[in-house]
Specification:
With 689 residues, the protein is an alpha+beta fold. Helices cover 48% and strands 7% of the residues. It has three domains: 136 residues, Phosphorylase Kinase, domain 1 (2-Layer Sandwich), CATH 3.30.200.20; 262 residues; 181 residues, Transferase(Phosphotransferase), domain 1 (Orthogonal Bundle), CATH 1.10.510. The strands form three sheets. It has a six-stranded antiparallel beta sheet with strand order 1-2-3-5-4-10. Strands 6-9 form a two-stranded antiparallel ribbon. The chain has a two-stranded antiparallel ribbon with strand order 7-8. It comes from Cyclotella cryptica.
């Protein structure tokens, strides 16, 4: 019966992850607050607001939230049928998030669509008469309509928001509006004119003459450079990497585009939109939806909000299970840790460290925390669901990774480590098992249970043997453990990169074990037994000895010159000279990664080299097993002191919640009808109104 139940759960899980592209499938209606609940919540939000921040529920505050911008944009475009100004604002906000070649491309698009003179058709007689009347509102409207309007677009991102540009006072914005905005101008599609428009166009025109500006890609630019240089080159010239030269020139172009290029234009058009539509929005259905969704975000998350699916793995204190958020239909992984098991192992601080680190680090290269909450018996971490399996699973399947896979996985893992380091954490548990693939093949770090803040007194081995750095094992002359910092992660990274390339960890290989056993021979001979425990201890001592004393050799059958060099530099036993001492940029600059387009990796635009099958990329549920409730478990009692550990455990990620809601609303927009929960009476509408 258990096998049948496991098979059913496997089938349900595969069906759920395979149908994600068909849209969210909620199973619970959104809770709608009463007028009293909403009023009390609004008062709380207002009371907590910082005086230096925008006033809650006002225009700037709403548009600074992705959900607020999304719903305001929907109101302006759908209800008021006025989209050009909103499209311009959204395009500029996207531009602000770009770098490198993409920034050059988007700049060219914005200028050509919204800020250049558009050919005007011949006016019919009534338009000409209307335009002659300067005081005629009808005349201004006709003049505006005779321009060719850019095509309407919709927000498809879940993180597009407009942070206030605080250097512009309300008085300055009004001054810019008076000088540089004219609804009847034929100079731009959004009504900009004067020195603001001239300044943007002149800066962009200076760059248009540079090779590569606009829609030219790196390969085209490389060919252009090669063609120009070939006129004066000789056969004695050294060969050049023209694509690299192209990237370099595009980088120069993007750096010459100031970050505030569109700021004045943005505040002017935002002010125009506010004057035209803010009052109406506050009375609209979209504004009511916004308040209800934000209220729901602040309510306490509970276990009943989620529906459990297949067990994916087992940790030290509980199981990791696939789950669905009831209201949005979003799939997540839920890590459930039993408070009694945590108490038995005296690991409260480890659990708190993991929650704190997950809540603190927001990176596309690390599995992110969406929610954390607790019940009387358990604590819960709700995380990104990575359905593609871990790299250990795929490495076992393949034997070793291709060069493209090594570069891609190595680059993303490196950036994940740096994201942790930037927040002051050291990971301490890097290994292939802790690198998970998403359904589209993107890799992220997971299991931050051993991650801690770096302190001057940090010491003690943590993680998995064979990935430990030597400084974790060394002791000073008094026999005390040596202190270490984030450099231990780069040693682990070197071990893992070598494993990707050859299929074998250099300190867990047969050669390393033989080296360690030979070195520790005298110590091992003192053990008279040959029990399983003795053999395990012997292997552990051998791995530790190899880590401390062995200098691995890298077989040229698997390792290129650059690959062997970077691995040697990363597993340097001296942390002060180890590659990465100056941060991950030092590793990124190594010749081994010369083919990596870091701009595209960092912006998450590189296509993964391997797409995992849509299957259960995990061990069988019988192999994962369960926890036995032994005598120690039953005898353990939780008291008020234990509960006090978790008083700050509850957490909701604004980013994750907003993404859920916007994906939900996009699906409603695409289908043109409310998204109703499955298996719930159809009279219960799931849409918040």
């Amino acid at each position: 019966m258990e096998e049948l139940q496991d098979a059913i759960e496997d089938a349900q899980y595969v069906s759920a992850i395979s149908s994600v592209e068909d849209g969210p499938r909620p199973v619970l209606p959104w809770e709608i607050p009463s007028e009293e609940q909403l009023a009390a919540w609004r008062e709380t939000v207002l009371a907590k607001n910082d005086a230096d921040l925008p006033v809650p529920f006002e225009f700037e505050w709403v548009l600074a939230r992705a959900l607020g911008l999304f719903l305001f944009s929907a109101y302006v475009k759908e209800v008021r049928d006025d989209y050009v100004d909103m499209n311009f604002i959204e395009e500029v906000l996207r531009w602000k998030a770009t770098r490198g070649r993409l920034r050059a491309d988007v700049t060219s698009t914005i200028v050509s669509k919204y800020l250049t003179t558009v050919p005007m058709p011949v006016m019919v007689e009534e338009e000409a008469n209307a335009s002659n009347n300067e005081n005629s509102g009808e005349g201004a409207a006709l003049l505006a309509n005779r321009r060719e309007r850019p095509a309407k677009t919709e927000i498809t991102e879940t993180d597009l928001a407009m942070e206030p540009i605080t250097r512009f006072t309300p008085e300055k914005i009004q001054e810019l509006r008076a000088q540089c905005y004219d609804a009847s101008t034929d100079r731009s599609a959004v009504g900009l004119c004067g020195h603001v428009l001239d300044g943007i166009v002149s800066k962009v025109d200076q760059l248009r003459n540079m090779p590569g500006f606009g829609m030219m890609n790196v390969a085209d630019l490389g060919d252009s450079i090669k063609s120009n240089e070939s006129r004066s080159s000789t056969e004695k010239d050294e060969p050049k990497d023209y694509k690299k030269e192209g990237r370099k020139k595009l980088s120069i172009i993007s750096k010459r585009l100031p970050d505030d290029l569109f700021d004045e234009a943005l505040v002017i058009i935002a002010q125009i939109v506010k004057e035209k539509h803010w009052e109406g929005f506050q009375k609209s259905e979209q504004y009511t939806k916004l308040l209800n969704f934000l209220w729901f975000q602040d309510r306490r998350v509970v276990e009943e909000d989620f529906f459990l699916m297949r067990v994916l793995g087992r940790g030290g204190f509980g199981l990791v299970t696939a789950c669905k958020k009831g209201t949005s239909g979003k799939l997540y992984a839920m890590k459930i840790m039993n408070k009694k098991r945590i108490k038995i192992k005296k690991s409260e601080q480890l659990a708190l460290n993991e929650q704190s680190c997950l809540a603190d680090v927001d990176s596309p290269f690390v599995v992110n925390l969406a929610y954390s909450f607790h019940s009387k018996e358990d604590v819960f971490l709700v995380l990104d669901l990575m359905t593609g399996g871990d790299l250990s699973f795929h490495l076992c399947q393949k034997g070793l990774f291709s060069r493209k896979e090594c570069l891609y996985y190595g680059a993303r893992i490196m950036l994940g480590l740096q994201a942790l380091h930037d927040k002051g954490y050291v990971y301490r548990d890097l290994k292939p098992e802790n690198c998970l693939l998403s359904e589209d093949g993107r890799v992220r770090l997971t299991d931050l249970g051993l991650a801690v803040k770096v302190t001057p007194k940090l010491h003690g081995a943590a993680g998995t043997r064979g990935y430990w750095a030597p400084e974790m094992l060394k002791r000073d002359k008094n026999g005390k453990r040596m202190m270490y910092d984030h450099m231990v992660d780069w040693f682990s990274f070197g071990c893992m990169l070598a494993e990707f390339i050859s299929g074998t960890n250099p300190f867990r290989s047969e050669k390393a074990l033989n080296f360690g056993l030979a070195k520790a021979k005298d110590q091992l001979q003192s053990s008279t037994n040959n029990s399983k425990d003795d053999r395990k201890r012997a292997k552990e001592k051998a791995i530790d000895c190899a880590t401390l004393e062995m200098h691995p050799e890298f077989d040229s059958e698997f390792f290129s010159e650059e690959a062997s060099d970077i691995c040697r530099l990363l597993i340097d036993k001296d942390p002060t000279t180890r590659l990465g001492a100056k941060g991950c940029k030092e590793i990124m600059a190594h010749p081994y990664f010369s083919d990596v387009n870091w701009e595209e990796i960092i912006s998450d635009r590189t296509r993964p080299p391997f797409i995992p099958p849509r299957d259960v990329n995990a061990a069988s549920q019988s192999e994962i097993g369960t926890f036995t409730e032994d005598k120690a478990f039953h005898n353990t009692v939780l008291d008020e002191k234990d509960e006090a550990y978790y008083k700050h455990w509850d957490f909701t990620s604004t980013k994750a919640y907003t993404a859920e809601v916007i994906q939900f609303l996009i699906y409603e927009r695409e289908t043109g009808q409310p998204l109703l929960p499955m298996n719930v009476d159809s009279s219960c509408c799931c849409t918040i109104i």
